[in-house]
Amino acid sequence: MCMQGVTRKAGPLPGKIVALFGGVHGNERVGVEALRWAAATIEPECGTIYFVEANPAAIEKNLRMLKKNLNRCLLEENQGTAPEDVRARELM
Q1: Which residues of 21-51 are buried (b: 16+ CB within 10 A; e: fewer)?
Q2: Strand pairing category for 46-53 and 13-22
Q3: How would residue 2 be classed by pLDDT, with cut points 50, 70 and 90?
Q4: Which residue, 1, 2, 48, 49, is most buried by CB atoms nearer than 10 A?
């Protein structure tokens, strides 16, 4: 599965799966830049790492959010229709 804003890197050996998130709030640039640096630099020896730009639409527009705070949308019962609701369901 290929999802916007997600880079997957797998090592040659089996191991743990880790997900690193940046950009839950699109205007908090330090996390996004650190995530991009890590995705370009880290080569796992084992396991899999997912580097996730959590809210790519907000990152692109340099906004905290489009309609809703993404971290408030990460709920199992989320049935909303805002872009962040949809993205939260993708990420979960």
Answers
A1: bbbbbbebeebbeebeeebeeeeeeeeebbb
A2: parallel
A3: low
A4: 49
